[in-house]
Amino acid sequence: MNRSTATPIRLLATVALSTGLAGCISLAEMSAPAKHASATRSPQALQADRLFWHTLHGGDYEGIAMALQAETGAYLDNPDDAITAAHVGWLHIWRLAESGRMARIPPTITDDATLARRYFEEAVALDPREARYQGFLASAQLADGAIHHDEALKRRGYATLKASIQAWPEFNLFTGGYVMSALPADSPQFQEGLAWQWDNLDACAGTHVDRQQPDFPHYAASARIDGPRRACADSAIAPHNVEGFFLDMGDMLVKAGDWQTARQVYANAQDAPNFATWPFADTLRSHLAHAQENVARFNGPASGRGKPGDQMMAVSTMACMACHQQ
Q1: What Cα–Cα distance (Å) separates residue 109 from each residue in 40, 96, 307?
Q2: 184-227: per-residue pLDDT in tens?
Q3: Long-range CB contacts (within 8 A, 24+) of 290-294
Q4: What is the pLDDT of residues 283-300, one digit of tens each?
Q5: Which of 290, 274, 263 is nearest to 324 (CA)?
Q6: What is the CA angle 274-278-282, rounded to 5?
Q7: Quick check: 306 and 315 in contact, CB under 8 A?
Q8: Which of 81, 91, 178, 223 has its CA 20 to 30 A from that of 134?
Q9: Do residues 135 and 164 lie in contact, with contact meaning Cβ atoms separated by under 8 Å?
C-alpha cells in the first residue's frame, strides 16, 4: 500500500470510529433508566419550602441566597423531588429578573438563567404533566438562549412555550406574553405576545372580550374561576395575580402605542378584590396617569431595567413581586 492510498483509508477509519463511538454514546443515553418523581417529600424539603414562601411573599430579595441554600440542599438530598427542583429554578429566575435591585450587577448574574433552565428541566422531567413547570422552563430557555446567542436553544424555548400554552392556556398565555413584553414593540414576537394577553382575557372570561372596551370585571362577574380558570384569580401562591396581569398588559399596550386602551386595562386592576392591599398600587396609578407619555419612555434608550415607576413591570424591580409579594 502506498502513501497516497493509506491516507484516505486512515481518514475513513477515523470517521468510522467516530461515528461508531457517537452511536454507542447515543444508545447508552437512550437506554439509561429514567428518573422518577418521589412519592413523598422529606422533612428537609418541607422546611425549605417554608423559607421559600416566606422569602417570596415577603419580597425579600436579599433573602434569595439563604432560600437557595435551603432548597438546593434539599434537592441534593433528594434529586427526585420535582417541587424542590422547581423552587430552586424559580429562585434563580427571580434573582435574575429583579437584578436591578443590586447596587452593582455582576456579570455572573447570567448564570442564574442557566441554572434556572437546568432545574426546570429536572422539574419537567419528573412531573411532565405540570404545565406551570413547562412555562417556566420555556422562560429560562429563552433567557439562556438570548444571553448566549444560542439560536437553537431559543427555538427550543419557543416550542416549549407553545406546548405549555396548549397544556394550560389560562396560565401560560400570560407567561408567554410576559416573556415577549421586553422585546421591541415592532417585533413579531412582541406582537404575538400582546395577542396572547388578549387571548388570556378571553380564556379567563369564557367569551370574547371587546378589544376597544375591555371592561373585564363585567365579563368576570359571570365567569367561573375554578379548574383551569383558577389561574385567572388572586391565590395563595400569587396574592396579586390579577393586579400584576393588568399592569403588565397595560404596559404592553402602552409600548405598542395604544395608550388609550391601556388606561382601560390598567383600570381593571383597580377592581381586583385585593387591590387595596397591593404593595404596588401606586405604581399602577402612576402608569395609568402617565400612559401617554410612557409610550416614548417604554420604547426609548433608557427602557432597560429600573425602578417600577419609570419602567415596564417586566423589566423593573417588581418583575416577579408585582404578583407574588403580599
Answers
A1: 33, 6, 18
A2: 999 999 999 999 999 999 999 888 999 998 987 766 655 567 78
A3: 291/250, 291/254, 291/259, 291/260, 291/262, 291/263, 291/266, 292/259, 294/251, 294/254, 294/259
A4: 999 999 999 999 999 998
A5: 274
A6: 130
A7: yes
A8: 223
A9: yes
What one-letter code names the amino acid at 71? E
Which residue blocks in the chain are alpha helix, DSSP H?
A: 3-30, 43-57, 64-77, 82-97, 111-126, 131-147, 151-167, 169-180, 188-205, 216-220, 241-255, 259-269, 281-289, 291-299, 321-324
Grid cell, residue 17, equals: 470510529
Q: What is the rounded distance in angstroms from the CA atom of residue 37 to the CA atom of residue 44?
A: 16
What does the block give as the cell for 300? 426609548
- Please check whether residue 166 is in contact with residue 158, taking contact to mean a CB–CB distance below 8 angstroms: no
Average pLDDT, the chain: 90
User: How many Å apart are CA 70 and CA 269, to the nearest integer?
Assistant: 35
Query: What amino acid is encoded at 186 in this protein?
Result: D
Cell of residue 276, nine digits: 387595596
